[in-house]
Amino acid sequence: MTSISLKKGVVSSMRQVNCASPIALSFNIPFVTQGGS
Questions:
Q1: Could you give the CA distance from residue 13 to residue 25 in angstroms, rounded to a whole number?
Q2: What is the pLDDT of residues 2-12, one digit of tens each?
Q3: What is the C-alpha to C-alpha distance for residues 1 and 29, in angstroms, rounded to an integer?
Q4: How confident is the model at residue 37 (pLDDT cuts 50, 70, 90)?
Q5: Higher pLDDT, residue 36 or 27
Q6: Any idea what DSSP says for residue 37?
Q7: Around 13, how many Cα atoms within 13 Å sit in the side-chain half-sphere?
Q8: What is the mean pLDDT of residues 10-35?
Q9: Cα–Cα nearest to 34, from 5, 6, 1
Q10: Is 14 a residue whose pLDDT tops 60?
Protein backbone atom coordinates (compact mmCIF):
# COMPACT_ATOMS: atom_id res chain seq x y z
CA MET A 1 0.00 0.00 0.00
CA THR A 2 2.83 2.38 0.85
CA SER A 3 4.35 1.69 -2.57
CA ILE A 4 1.17 2.88 -4.30
CA SER A 5 1.05 6.00 -2.14
CA LEU A 6 4.69 6.71 -2.90
CA LYS A 7 4.08 6.17 -6.61
CA LYS A 8 1.22 8.66 -6.54
CA GLY A 9 3.44 11.15 -4.75
CA VAL A 10 6.20 10.63 -7.31
CA VAL A 11 3.77 11.15 -10.18
CA SER A 12 2.54 14.34 -8.54
CA SER A 13 6.13 15.48 -8.03
CA MET A 14 7.01 14.63 -11.62
CA ARG A 15 4.08 16.71 -12.87
CA GLN A 16 5.14 19.69 -10.77
CA VAL A 17 8.76 19.26 -11.79
CA ASN A 18 7.81 18.93 -15.46
CA CYS A 19 6.09 22.31 -15.14
CA ALA A 20 8.89 23.77 -13.02
CA SER A 21 12.18 22.74 -14.67
CA PRO A 22 13.91 19.65 -16.15
CA ILE A 23 16.80 20.08 -13.70
CA ALA A 24 14.54 19.09 -10.80
CA LEU A 25 13.42 16.07 -12.85
CA SER A 26 17.02 14.85 -13.01
CA PHE A 27 17.10 15.05 -9.22
CA ASN A 28 13.77 13.19 -9.04
CA ILE A 29 15.01 10.21 -11.08
CA PRO A 30 17.07 8.64 -8.21
CA PHE A 31 14.13 9.16 -5.87
CA VAL A 32 11.85 7.21 -8.23
CA THR A 33 14.42 4.42 -8.44
CA GLN A 34 14.54 4.23 -4.64
CA GLY A 35 10.74 4.06 -4.47
CA GLY A 36 10.66 1.23 -7.03
CA SER A 37 13.22 -0.66 -4.98
A1: 9
A2: 777 878 887 88
A3: 21
A4: very low
A5: 27
A6: -
A7: 17
A8: 66
A9: 6
A10: yes
Question: pTM for the full model?
Answer: 0.32
DSSP state of 4: H
Using DSSP, state whether 1 is helix, strand or coil: coil
Distance CA 36, CA 9 (A): 12
Domain-by-domain residue ranges, the chain? 2-36
In this structure, are residues 32 and 15 in contact, taking their beta carbons and an 8 Å threshold?
Answer: no
- Burial, 10: exposed, middle or buried (Cβ in 10 Å; 0-12, 13-18, 19+)? middle
User: How would you class 21 by CB atoms within 10 Å of its CB: exposed for 0-12, middle for 13-18, buried for 19 or more?
Assistant: exposed
